[in-house]
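Protocol step 4 of 6: structure prediction from sequence.
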Amino acid sequence: MTLRKGEIPQVENLAEFLGQFYDLAGKPRPSKKELIRAHNRTRNELKHNDGGKNVRVVADFQFEAEEMLVRAIKNYFNTFKCMPNNKNVRDWFDFICS
């Protein structure tokens, strides 16, 4: 929805941010697609863990969940030019981002 409204989705902003580390280190920058894939690695491993095997995924799940929620709230703001109406969501976002 953010892209349809002419705004840049947070995942693309994060890919650019990650790419800047490669630039600073003087290393070749991976493609935007590779940077996005690296950023979404844990989410995608959980989402597509349907091969019939119980694959163990090790990650900081609290951080991953918080980061996904922050991205969603930032996309909401970029799309609608305001924060969500829910006070709990706004308070949580302020707490996490401060």
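Step 5 (inspection) to follow. Residues 10-97 form one domain.
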